[in-house]
């Protein structure tokens, strides 16, 4: 009998299983009572575990294969670990820095409108997105979402990220959602004298995110001069380049056409992205306009 169990924090037996070690300390009358209860129908089962050694268990209900029962300490530890991972996954989903309307959202919140042709296209895109998320891994394709304002590019990118967390979560998973202008601002903030960060470390950290969404590339350019805008592009390109080296996919949204985007990003970044890229052009009416309420007074 393994005495280590006495110190274990995982000592709450499941209702159908009682560890003899645990029952041994009880007063005799209670043990007697338990044993005399015919409805419990107990059977003694031995387990021999590489980690926890030999254990003896009272199984209080006849299970089909009582003599093949696994070490219950292993099972409790595994259940506790799975619970912990599930909680961490839920915490990550709830804390993603994506627009609040997309926190915890899923594809059931994506409505499909338009004529038959548009509906079929959108259904195809949604199917692809779900499969992409379910099989997310290193070396997976980059995604470029292009199209007019209000067509759901940001929403789709966020739904994909949420689904990746749901389907592929692991304890060290990190998800970053950044507007392109925000990346520039945050890099520039590292140049402040008081900052404990530096731009190289920032770019490396962001590049290493398991999932990275760069939203609104080409929008809200924070630079005043062409030269400064070139520097902004260089920094974005450095992130794309680094992720390419790390074989980590990047999801990008932009109002530019794909060609304008490639031109804007320059050959180096565009070539790397296009080596494995799914280009989704969201050519349908703006959801904001379709569902918006405009009143004239
Ligand atoms: N298919 C859809 N089903 C439900 N809501 C949608 C759909 N498409 C867009 N929306 C909603 O419409 C609004 C605009 O969508 P979103 O911000 O994703 O558009 P966008 O293409 O990123 O626009 P922009 O180019 O201006 O950034 C959001 O509130 C979003 O939740
Ligand atoms: Mg958007
Ligand atoms: Zn064990």
Automatic annotation (TrEMBL):
Residues 139-279 form the AAA+ ATPase domain. Residues 13-22 have a biased composition (Basic and acidic residues). One of its GO terms (molecular function) is ATP binding. InterPro entries: AAA+_ATPase (IPR003593), IstB_ATP-bd (IPR002611), P-loop_NTPase (IPR027417). It comes from the Bacteria. Residues 1-30 are annotated as: Disordered. Gene3D superfamilies: P-loop containing nucleotide triphosphate hydrolases. SUPFAM superfamilies: P-loop containing nucleoside triphosphate hydrolases. Residues 1-11 have a biased composition (Polar residues). GO terms for biological process: DNA replication. Pfam families: IstB_IS21 (PF01695). This is DNA replication protein DnaC. It comes from Psychrobacter fozii. The lineage of its organism: Bacteria, Pseudomonadati, Pseudomonadota, Gammaproteobacteria, Moraxellales.
């Amino acid at each position: 009998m393994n005495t280590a169990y006495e110190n274990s924090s995982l000592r709450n037996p499941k209702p159908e299983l009682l560890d003899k070690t645990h029952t041994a300390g009880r007063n005799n009358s209670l043990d007697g009572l338990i044993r005399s209860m015919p409805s419990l129908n107990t059977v003694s089962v031995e387990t021999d575990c590489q980690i926890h050694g030999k254990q003896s268990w009272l199984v209080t209900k006849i299970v089909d294969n009582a003599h093949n029962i696994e070490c219950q300490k292993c099972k409790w530890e595994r259940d506790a670990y799975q619970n912990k991972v599930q909680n961490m996954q839920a915490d990550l989903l709830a804390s993603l820095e994506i627009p609040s309307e997309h926190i915890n959202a899923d594809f059931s919140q994506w409505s499909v409108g338009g004529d038959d042709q548009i509906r079929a296209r959108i259904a195809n895109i949604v199917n692809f997105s779900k499969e992409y998320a379910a099989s997310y891994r290193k070396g997976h394709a980059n995604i470029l979402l292009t199209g007019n304002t209000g067509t759901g590019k940001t929403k789709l990118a966020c739904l994909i990220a949420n689904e990746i967390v749901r389907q592929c979560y692991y304890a060290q998973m990190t998800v970053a959602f950044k507007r392109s202008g925000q990346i520039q601002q945050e890099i520039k903030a590292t140049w402040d004298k008081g900052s404990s960060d530096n731009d190289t470390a920032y770019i490396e950290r962001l590049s290493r995110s398991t999932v990275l969404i760069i939203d609104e590339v080409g929008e809200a350019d924070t630079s005043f001069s062409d030269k400064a805008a070139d520097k902004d592009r260089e920094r974005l390109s450095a992130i794309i380049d680094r992720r390419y080296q790390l074989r980590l996919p990047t999801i990008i949204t932009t109002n530019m056409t794909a060609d304008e985007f490639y031109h804007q990003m320059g050959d180096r970044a565009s070539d790397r992205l296009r080596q494995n890229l799914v280009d989704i052009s969201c050519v349908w009416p703006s959801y904001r306009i379709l569902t918006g309420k405009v009143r004239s007074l």
